[in-house]
């Protein structure tokens, strides 16, 4: 087959140029990426050979070779792993950032401005292209295990690449870099130097479970003859999760995390776990420092790496952790599973289910511990992942209390710091029976809501819930620590203590009698819009507000379900009036004996519309409301 020449996409060319001109502050990471890719290829070959007896691949000596030629200024990273077919080369190597390249480029340019660029690279799987930071030309030679023909891919990163079929490629993949000239100002970047390569492997890839080999220095014997010793293995190959805590440094943990996650930033938290007894396994889990770009997309890959007796089984084992902990990365090494386990079997395996329960509890308890021991670190975690963790309140009844204990929320108690439910309960006023909350699109919108007036006046703390998932989970969670969760925008606002109730009971009854005519008349006038008009105990400044009945879904929840394709029946709500407001008392006085006055009917309609606007809801007929309002304003001039 003749050599084919292809052009990179416009965005890909721009991205390559950014890579070539050093997005990275440390160029050494190119070798970490290529070694990591080679390690993945070896893992996949061993797994494939276990599942397919007819593959015919040699798995007797799986390893990675580093071959440096100072004279030719080339460096080759070679593995005898799974390799790639011609189509895979075109799909995976021939294109860069297969999806979302334009968005990635935009994010990358922004990240360069704040020094955060390295963290984005791994999230889009373009680590291979870091080779162009140190190389004028990159050649990839590969043959997939079980196939007879290989493929060569070559590019200088300028805008085109070539692909050709070759007959003599060995099994696996070899990436050869034609290195740039040595930087005279910094001799540390000579990547044909044996000590430099050894130092990079030790720092970034020492834990790789496959031998990373490099030709040994020639030795001159006593007879004057030069001997070439066997290649030396430059990494220890000892799995970090199998070593004692005293033997592993924090940097080594961080490098393992970067190898697993392809993230370029250190993890926020490292979690070690070892289970012994009837069923033994070891786990080394990591909580990232920030959410990946695709955390909320349908195609997001989740799960941790599964090993059985140090043998890699799969890269993204979803059965070990629930979906709401999908951001957790790491390794689980079980001692008693079958090497030929499949994803379908995992879903039903009793031991996997046991690990799932224990690992989930361990992660949640670690988050809670982080909250107490490292508040700033926890604040970062909750900002990045709090929304997804709260998804667990909907589907994980067994861990609902643990999730609530590890959660924090904005509240009226503090403008800056969030609060836990435990802290809220400790601050509750004497006689307060409920944990009060309100959902909305923003903190400012909730704080300025009429529903907040009586709570603000009485100094009663309210949780301010602004994530879309908050609309749903509050329906599924009955309470915390024996205290019921109560929305301040639903049902009656019962804020009086037992002592106060007796004092205000007579006053409330008197008001109901005085306003009974107005309430009946307005209920009739607005019967198409509301189910009831009643006096309010939650208003102190505003004339009116709209509330949902205690058992009805809020408008925001209804809209959320409709957005997910679930039709919800229209539910009428309740209009509450503030009997102490001049507009309401004036309307009561004017309404007596003038029930058929169109101007009063318009006033009732305007009062209802302003209540809708105050809570951020849409008007049923904005044009009519505007006309009524402008006409009324005109008559006041």
Reading side by side through the largest sheet, how are the strands ordered? 1-6-5-4-7-3-2-8-11
Number of helices: 21
Low-pLDDT stretches are 118-125
CATH class of the largest domain: Alpha Beta
Distance between the termini: 87 Å
The H-level CATH homologous superfamily of the largest domain, spelled out, is: Histidine kinase-like ATPase, C-terminal domain
Shape: elongated
The amount of beta strand, in percent, is: 15-25%
Compute the gyration radius: what is it?
33 Å
Question: Structural class of the secondary structure composition?
Answer: alpha+beta
Query: Mean pLDDT, as a whole number?
Result: 85
**What is the helical fraction, as a range of percent?**
25-40%
The name CATH uses for the topology of the largest domain is Heat Shock Protein 90
Explain this structure to me?
This protein has 637 residues and is an alpha+beta fold. The protein folds into four domains: 224 residues, Heat Shock Protein 90 (2-Layer Sandwich), CATH 3.30.565; 144 residues, Ribosomal Protein S5, domain 2; 80 residues, Rossmann fold; 130 residues, Heat shock protein 90, C-terminal domain (Four Helix Bundle (Hemerythrin (Met), subunit A), Up-down Bundle). Strands 1-6-5-4-7-3-2-8-11 form a nine-stranded mixed beta sheet, covered by helices on one side. It has a six-stranded mixed beta sheet with strand order 18-17-20-19-22-21. α9 crosses α10. It starts with a strand and ends with a helix.
């Amino acid at each position: 087959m003749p050599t084919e020449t292809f052009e990179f996409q416009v965005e890909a060319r721009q991205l390559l140029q950014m890579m070539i001109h050093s997005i990275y502050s440390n160029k050494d990471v190119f070798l970490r990426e290529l070694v990591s890719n080679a390690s993945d290829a070896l893992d996949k070959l061993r797994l494939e050979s276990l599942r397919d007896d007819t593959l015919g691949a040699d798995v007797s000596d799986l390893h990675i070779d580093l071959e440096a030629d100072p004279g030719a200024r080339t460096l080759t990273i070679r593995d005898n792993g799974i390799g790639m077919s011609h189509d895979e080369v075109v799909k995976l190597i021939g294109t860069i950032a297969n999806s979302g390249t334009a968005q990635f480029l935009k994010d990358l340019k922004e990240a360069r401005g704040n020094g955060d660029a390295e963290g984005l690279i791994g999230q889009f799987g373009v680590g291979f292209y870091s080779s162009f930071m140190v190389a004028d030309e990159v050649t990839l030679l590969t043959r997939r295990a079980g196939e007879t023909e290989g493929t060569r891919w070559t590019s200088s990163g300028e805008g085109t690449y070539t692909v050709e079929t070759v007959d003599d490629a060995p099994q696996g993949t070899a990436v050869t870099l034609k290195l740039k000239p040595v930087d005279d100002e910094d001799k540390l970047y000579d990547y044909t130097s044996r000590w430099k390569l050894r130092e990079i492997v030790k720092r970034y890839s020492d834990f790789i479970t496959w031998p990373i080999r490099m030709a040994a220095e020639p030795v001159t014997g006593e007879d004057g003859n030069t001997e070439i010793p066997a290649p030396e293995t430059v990494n220890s190959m000892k799995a970090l999760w199998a070593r004692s805590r005293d033997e592993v440094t924090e940097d080594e943990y961080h490098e393992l995390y970067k190898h697993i996650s392809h993230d370029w930033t250190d993890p926020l938290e490292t979690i070690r776990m070892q289970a012994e007894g009837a069923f033994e396994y070891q786990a080394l889990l990591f909580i990232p420092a920030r959410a990946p770009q695709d955390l909320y997309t349908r195609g997001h890959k989740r799960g941790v790496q599964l090993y059985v007796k140090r043998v890699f089984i799969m890269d993204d084992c979803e059965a070990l952790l629930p979906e709401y902990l999908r951001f957790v990365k790491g390794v689980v090494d079980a001692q008693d599973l079958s090497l030929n386990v499949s994803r379908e079997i995992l879903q039903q395996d009793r031991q996997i289910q046991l690990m799932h329960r224990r690992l989930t509890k361990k992660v949640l308890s670690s988050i809670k511990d982080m909250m107490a021991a490292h508040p700033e670190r926890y604040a970062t975690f909750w900002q990045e992942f709090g929304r997804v963790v709260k998804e667990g309140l909907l589907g994980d009844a067994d861990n609902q209390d643990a999730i609530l204990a590890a959660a924090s929320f904005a509240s009226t108690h503090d403008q800056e710091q969030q609060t836990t439910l435990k802290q809220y309960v400790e601050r509750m006023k004497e006689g307060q029976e409920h944990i009060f909350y309100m959902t909305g699109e923003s903190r400012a919108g909730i704080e300025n809501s009429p529903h907040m007036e009586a709570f603000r006046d009485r100094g009663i703390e309210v949780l301010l819930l602004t994530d879309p998932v908050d609309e749903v989970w509050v329906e599924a969670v009955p309470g915390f620590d024996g205290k019921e969760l109560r929305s301040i925008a639903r049902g009656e606002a019962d804020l009086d203590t037992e002592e106060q109730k007796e004092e205000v009971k007579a006053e409330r009854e008197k008001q109901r009698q005085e306003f009974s005519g107005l309430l009946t008349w307005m209920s009739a006038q607005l019967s198409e819009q509301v189910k009831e008009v009643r006096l309010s105990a939650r208003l102190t400044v505003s004339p009116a507000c709209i509330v949902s009945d205690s058992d009805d879904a809020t408008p925001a929840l209804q809209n959320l379900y409709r957005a997910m394709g679930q039709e919800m029946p229209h539910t009428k709500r309740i209009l509450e009036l503030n009997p102490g407001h001049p507009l309401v008392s004036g309307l009561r006085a004017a309404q007596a004996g003038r029930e058929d006055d169109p101007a009063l009917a318009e006033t009732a309609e305007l009062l209802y519309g302003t209540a809708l606007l105050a809570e951020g809801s849409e008007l049923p007929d904005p044009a009519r409301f505007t006309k009524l309002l402008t006409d009324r304003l005109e008559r006041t001039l």
